[in-house]
């Protein structure tokens, strides 16, 4: 299977990552939890207790200024506003305690050893992080694909004697929230809106942590856990707050460490699919946790945590920031960043997410998911896909991915069958054929209603879609090129809310895509023209198909918007409506009286339940899934205007 | 005076046969003493080594100096005035530079660039008037020269200048013309150097109190032309507060005010066109200055703080209460260690025992971290009663910020170092170490940030530029104001292994200045702009500001007779 060169490369990759569970399996959990923990913090930074931190925040000149301002505006007394601020801070603040870190270490040790075969960490990245922490305040920015992400970084840092981070988290629920608080989580409300006092407390709190640098700060630049396992367009609020101390010169530099966490199998895979389909997610409560304990019996393969090269904000922002804007206003007064600064932060945030993408490891399963989703639906549900067909195609795709420069998690030639076994909730392997898992519950008596059937299938397909999405970033650039060559830039624009493009880099992205396609022999690029080669059709068609569903889904949205009679609607109403339209289309099986463009694209879709002839059914599920992501909603509204 | 280093020829640091550092001569308190800690400090701070020497060229090679471009007509008329002049190579080279690192480094290597073609020594205001008239008539370029202590490349001859360059040396205009005891002013010729002015005034029981670190050599005219600042400005004020009347000779004639009123509302103060003009508009010839009776009592002092942050907070509080002593300076930890290394050999066991006891008390008993603590040096002046009262007030404030009084001796040594530190650079240059200081002024809320960031920037830039050894990057807060402070940075490194050390040095200094400006610091507090910092003038004072200054220059000196090309 592997050429000598590939084997060598592969060995190198192996060396890069160390399984940190291996040692844990040899020692006792208690011994681990009680180990000496003596991290080296940021140079000269005094340790700051929770109460000292909160006191510093409340007494800060900035917050006092805002409190006075609010008191003036609202006519209430300064004391009253101060109390409000104090309450907000209480709700927000972390309560990092070494004892709880140890408890967390002990528990996670047990859990992780059960769930995962291995947790691979790149030691070189960890070493660089250790170094960086001593030089400047460090911001850890992992991608967010699973709840497991939440404490894995703390767990690793505790293991390697590096100061454990304080973590920005969404608003929490009683008991478990309290536990996480003690492990270093602080809480941010989901919708802050125009609550001036809340913003002020948050800003001062975050910046005090950054300025003192006594612990790394961890946050998710994507804002939410990605339910489609695809990177989300970064949110800029936290990024702004975190970088401002550097822009104001309150710290010499800030080190940003993108972290890519990749899972063979995501713990809450079916939960994600249900959430995408609009089934409300369970609250993060104790009962939820117990329910999750069924999860503990399962095998989730390996996890890779790739600590990216520390990035210096100072170096990255060089020449992009005009400092003098900060020179004429006192430090402690609120100041709106200029457009120039905002652009810089936006660019930086995108760069971080791209770096996360590049640092993540593509699993064989992601590749298989790509292929399965391009297989005719009936093949998967009825005849089954021949195993050797799948493996051959997977190996072909593997080469393509490597040509595209992605990192691949491909330990040995057995990996394809083992990965299929790992994902028994999605596919099953019978008599040398692969089938989609159709009904998990054979005991059921009544036949499913058509709607329920769609839903049931949707869950499985969406899981596949999610795993496919993990590899999407590798293909997205050449994919776009293959899809709509002349509209490359147009599409980048359309997709800027869907995938990560560093703003202002369309030309480089285009060139990158071209060179990748040339590298795999799909196109020939001479000085004047680009020629699509015979040999490249396979690659091009693969890439094309990969992006088609996204276009289809956008089109459905447009159709909904065009058909809609009243022009005012709410977000809550919009998503279910689109979902209904999709279901209706499928069930009606015909769209004859529609405009030709839409008919063309939706005709095959409509036939899913009957005679599916094209692999476009996934588009449907994707639309069903476009549920909670407001970015997509915004785009639609924007385009409608 | 040395021709390629700082100060008097008889005073310098050297390593004696035993490898101990020693300061020669008799002029300073440190003169003739052994400094046992210096060698180890130099070795550990810079990685310097006594084996690796970089000695300077001992004597000036006159043949390396370009022959003068003389304007014969000008020379002929100058001769007829009887004003002394010279085109001797040594005289010209001596007036071709200030004390920037690159200037001294080049001299030590025997490299001589463009130098003035002629040196003239006017003896009085009228001589200057004659010289300027002749210069205008014959279109020669005039460059005023006072004490030659510039650190802004202000004395460098512009290489593009094709006219004959005449250095106008004011050193012979060094008399006090009168003292007015009723109004407490003195009328002084502008060529007088600081120490002579103080000495002469002291003889009559007065002083100006203006003591810039360069006061041994810098001149009154230079102070006015660069907006100088003195160590004791808290009592006496900076030069702009001290000056009552200025007489300056320009190509358009003499500018002076008609009276000596203490304050006037007569449009923008024309003195402010003169102060800071850096020799681009004319020559300051006479100045009326405020004088004060000599202080009855002087007392030094020092305070140790657990860290720099506390020290700055204390200085800020002192400024807030407006109770700053004549001088208050805060050194960071590196400079504290440096000061420590410069302690002369103690003669008695008792003193060293006491020193040990003090150290024990501060680090062990009080728990100060020797790698974080810092020291403020203080100088009180006035009548005895008030000084003691003032002293108590300041020490009480210091105590609130964890400060411990650390004795008069430490304070006094701190101020003495001011005068010898420039000599020390010459010692460093003998052993591959180059460095310099630069300054800024900054609002209080940015003092800590600017100190931290500029120091860190220097370290990072050195690393990036391939400097093989960690640099010395240290700072001190040297002046306090109501709204901010003056910060001084010292920066030096061992340049072994670098092919063009001066270029590296300049790049790092440039980056450090960018960092200062980015952190809200000023382009200069008192060193001036010269040619070294010209590139930042527009962003500093805005395009309109530049236009205002240019239009003054265009009116006063349309033919650019005062063509040193500083400032604009």
TrEMBL record, chain A:
Pathway: Phospholipid metabolism. The keyword Heme does not apply. GO terms for molecular function: glycerol-3-phosphate O-acyltransferase activity; glycerone-phosphate O-acyltransferase activity. SUPFAM superfamilies: Glycerol-3-phosphate (1)-acyltransferase. The keyword Thylakoid does not apply. One of its GO terms (cellular component) is mitochondrial membrane. It holds the Pfam family Acyltransferase. Its main location: membrane. The chain crosses the membrane at residues 152-180. Keywords: Acyltransferase, Membrane, Transferase, Transmembrane, Transmembrane helix. It comes from the Eukaryota. It is found in: Membrane. One of its GO terms (biological process) is fatty acid metabolic process. Residues 138-264 form the Phospholipid/glycerol acyltransferase domain. Belongs to the GPAT/DAPAT family. This is Dihydroxyacetone phosphate acyltransferase. It comes from Maylandia zebra (zebra mbuna).
From TrEMBL, chain B:
Catalyzes the exchange of an acyl for a long-chain alkyl group and the formation of the ether bond in the biosynthesis of ether phospholipids. The keyword Protein transport does not apply. This is Alkylglycerone-phosphate synthase. GO terms for biological process: ether lipid biosynthetic process. Substrate binds at residue 425. Homodimer. Pathway: Lipid metabolism; Glycerolipid metabolism; ether lipid biosynthesis. InterPro entries: Alkyl-DHAP_Synthase (IPR025650), FAD-bd_oxidored_4_C (IPR004113), FAD-bd_PCMH (IPR016166), FAD-bd_PCMH-like_sf (IPR036318), FAD-bd_PCMH_sub1 (IPR016167), FAD-bd_PCMH_sub2 (IPR016169), FAD-linked_Oxase-like_C (IPR016164), Oxid_FAD_bind_N (IPR006094). It comes from Maylandia zebra. SUPFAM superfamilies: FAD-binding/transporter-associated domain-like, FAD-linked oxidases, C-terminal domain. It is an enzyme of class 2 (transferase). Its cofactor is FAD. Keywords: Acetylation, FAD, Flavoprotein, Lipid biosynthesis, Lipid metabolism, Membrane, Peroxisome, Phosphoprotein, Transferase, Transit peptide. One of its GO terms (cellular component) is peroxisomal membrane. The lineage of its organism: Eukaryota, Metazoa, Chordata, Craniata, Vertebrata. The keyword Transferase applies. Belongs to the FAD-binding oxidoreductase/transferase type 4 family. FAD binds at residues 144-150, 226-229, 278-284. It is found in: Peroxisome membrane. It comes from the Eukaryota. Gene3D superfamilies: 3.30.160.650, 3.30.300.330, 3.30.465.10, 3.30.70.3450, Uridine Diphospho-n-acetylenolpyruvylglucosamine Reductase, domain 2, Vanillyl-alcohol Oxidase, Chain A, domain 4. The record marks 329 as: Important for enzyme activity. The active site is at 488 (proton donor/acceptor). Its EC number is 2.5.1.26.
């Amino acid at each position: 299977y592997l050429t000598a060169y590939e084997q060598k490369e592969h060995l190198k990759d192996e060396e890069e990552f160390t399984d940190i569970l291996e040692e844990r399996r040899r020692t006792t959990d208690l011994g681990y939890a009680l180990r000496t923990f003596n991290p080296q913090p940021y140079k000269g930074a005094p340790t700051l207790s929770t109460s000292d931190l909160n006191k510093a925040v409340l007494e800060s000149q900035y917050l006092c200024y805002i409190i006075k301002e609010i008191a003036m505006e609202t006519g209430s007394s300064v004391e009253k506003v101060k109390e409000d601020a104090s309450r907000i801070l209480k709700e927000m603040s972390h309560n990092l305690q070494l004892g709880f870190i140890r408890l967390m270490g002990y528990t996670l040790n047990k859990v992780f050893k059960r769930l995962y075969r291995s947790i691979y960490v790149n030691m070189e990245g960890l070493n660089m992080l250790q170094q960086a922490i001593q030089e400047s305040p460090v911001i850890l920015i992992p991608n967010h694909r699973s709840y497991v992400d939440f404490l894995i970084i703390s767990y690793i840092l505790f293991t390697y004697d590096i100061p454990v981070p304080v973590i920005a988290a969404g608003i929490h629920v009683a008991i478990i929230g309290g536990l996480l608080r003690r492990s270093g989580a602080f809480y941010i409300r989901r919708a802050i809106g125009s609550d001036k006092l809340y913003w002020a407390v948050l800003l001062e709190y975050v910046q005090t942590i950054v300025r003192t640098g006594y612990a790394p700060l961890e946050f998710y630049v994507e804002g939410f856990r990605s339910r489609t396992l695809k990177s989300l367009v970064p949110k800029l609020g936290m990024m702004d707050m975190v970088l401002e101390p550097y822009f104001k010169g309150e710290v010499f530099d800030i080190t940003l460490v993108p972290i890519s966490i990749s899972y063979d199998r995501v713990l809450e895979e079916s939960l994600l699919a249900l959430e995408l389909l609009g089934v409300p997610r369970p609250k993060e409560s104790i009962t939820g946790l117990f329910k999750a304990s069924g999860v503990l019996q399962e095998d989730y393969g390996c996890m890779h945590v790739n600590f990216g090269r520390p990035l210096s904000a100072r170096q990255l922002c060089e020449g992009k920031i005009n400092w003098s804007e900060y020179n004429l206003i006192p430090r402690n007064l609120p100041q709106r960043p200029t457009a120039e600064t905002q652009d810089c932060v936006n660019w930086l945030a995108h760069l971080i997410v791209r770096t996360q993408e590049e640092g993540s490891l593509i699993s064989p399963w992601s590749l298989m998911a790509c292929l399965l989703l391009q297989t005719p639906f009936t093949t998967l549900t009825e005849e089954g896909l021949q195993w050797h067909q799948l493996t051959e195609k997977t190996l072909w795709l593997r080469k393509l991915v490597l040509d595209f420069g992605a990192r691949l998690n491909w330990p040995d030639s057995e990996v394809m069958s083992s990965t299929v076994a790992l994902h028994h909730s999605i596919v099953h392997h019978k008599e040398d054929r692969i089938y989609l898992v159709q009904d998990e519950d054979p005991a059921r008596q009544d036949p499913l209603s058509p709607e329920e059937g769609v839903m049931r299938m949707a869950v499985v397909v969406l899981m596949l879609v999610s795993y496919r999405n993990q590899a999407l970033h590798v293909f997205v650039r050449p994919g776009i090129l293959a899809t709509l060559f002349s509209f490359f830039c147009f599409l980048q624009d359309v997709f800027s809310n869907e995938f990560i493009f560093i703003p202002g880099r369309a030309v480089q992205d285009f060139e990158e895509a071209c060179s990748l396609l040339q590298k795999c022999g799909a196109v020939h690029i001479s000085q004047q023209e680009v020629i699509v080669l015979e040999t490249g059709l396979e690659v091009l068609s693969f890439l094309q198909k990969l992006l088609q569903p996204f276009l289809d889904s956008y089109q459905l949205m447009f159709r909904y918007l065009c058909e809609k009679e009243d022009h005012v609607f709410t977000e809550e109403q919009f998503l279910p409506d689109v979902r209904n339209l999709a279901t209706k289309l499928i069930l009606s099986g015909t769209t004859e009286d529609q405009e030709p463009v839409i008919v063309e694209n939706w005709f095959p879709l409509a036939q899913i339940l009957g005679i599916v002839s094209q692999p476009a059914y996934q588009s449907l599920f994707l639309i069903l899934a476009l549920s909670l992501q407001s970015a997509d909603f915004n785009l639609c509204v924007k385009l409608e205007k | 005076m040395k021709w390629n280093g700082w100060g008097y020829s008889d005073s310098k640091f050297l390593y004696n046969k035993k490898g101990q550092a020693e300061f020669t001569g008799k002029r300073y308190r440190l003169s003739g003493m052994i400094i046992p800690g210096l060698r180890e400090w130099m070795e550990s701070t810079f990685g310097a080594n006594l084996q690796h020497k970089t000695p300077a060229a001992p004597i000036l090679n006159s043949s390396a100096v370009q022959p003068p471009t003389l304007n014969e007509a000008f020379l002929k008329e100058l001769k007829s005035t009887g004003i002394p002049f010279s085109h001797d190579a040594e005289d010209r080279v001596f007036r071709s530079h200030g004390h920037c690192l690159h200037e001294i480094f080049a001299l030590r290597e025997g490299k001589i660039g463009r130098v003035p073609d002629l040196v003239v020594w006017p003896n009085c205001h009228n001589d200057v008037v004659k010289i300027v008239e002749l210069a205008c008539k014959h279109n020669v370029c005039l460059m005023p020269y006072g004490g030659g202590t510039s650190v802004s490349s202000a004395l460098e001859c512009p290489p593009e200048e094709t006219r004959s360059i005449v250095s106008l040396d004011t050193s012979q205009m060094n008399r006090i013309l009168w003292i007015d005891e009723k109004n407490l002013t003195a009328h002084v010729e502008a060529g007088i150097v600081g120490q002579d002015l103080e000495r002469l005034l002291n003889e009559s029981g007065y002083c100006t109190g203006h003591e810039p670190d360069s006061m041994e050599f810098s001149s009154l005219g230079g102070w006015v032309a660069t907006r100088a600042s003195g160590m004791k400005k808290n009592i006496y004020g900076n030069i702009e507060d001290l000056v009552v009347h200025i007489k300056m000779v320009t190509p358009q004639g003499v500018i002076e005010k008609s009276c000596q009123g203490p304050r006037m509302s007569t449009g923008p103060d024309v003195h402010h066109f003169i102060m800071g003009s850096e020799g681009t508009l004319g020559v300051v010839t006479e100045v009326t200055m405020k004088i004060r009776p000599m202080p009855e009592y002087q007392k030094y002092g020092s305070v140790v703080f657990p860290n720099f942050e506390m020290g700055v907070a204390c200085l800020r509080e002192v400024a807030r209460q407006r109770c700053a002593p004549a001088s208050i300076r805060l050194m960071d930890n590196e400079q504290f260690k440096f000061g420590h290394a410069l302690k002369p050999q103690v003669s008695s066991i008792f003193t060293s025992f006491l020193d040990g006891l003090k150290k024990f008390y501060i680090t062990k008993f009080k728990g100060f971290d020797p790698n974080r603590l810092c020291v403020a040096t203080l100088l009180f002046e006035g009548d005895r009663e008030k000084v003691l009262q003032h002293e108590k007030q300041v020490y009480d404030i210091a105590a609130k910020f964890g400060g411990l009084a650390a004795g008069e001796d430490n304070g006094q040594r701190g101020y003495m170092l001011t005068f010898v530190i420039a000599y020390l650079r010459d010692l460093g240059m003998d052993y591959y170490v180059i460095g310099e200081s630069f300054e800024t002024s900054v609002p209080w809320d940015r003092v800590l940030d600017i100190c931290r960031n500029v120091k860190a920037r220097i370290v990072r830039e050195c690393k990036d530029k391939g400097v093989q050894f960690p640099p010395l990057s240290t700072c001190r807060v040297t002046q306090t104001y109501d709204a901010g402070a003056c910060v001084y940075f010292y920066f030096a490194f061992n340049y072994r292994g670098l092919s063009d050390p001066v270029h590296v040095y300049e790049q790092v200094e440039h980056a450090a200045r960018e960092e200062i400006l980015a952190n809200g610091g000023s382009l200069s507090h008192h060193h001036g702009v010269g040619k070294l910092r010209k590139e930042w003038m527009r962003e500093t004072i805005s395009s309109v500001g530049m236009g205002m200054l240019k239009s003054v220059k265009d009116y006063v000196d349309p033919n650019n007779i005062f063509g040193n090309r500083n400032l604009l």
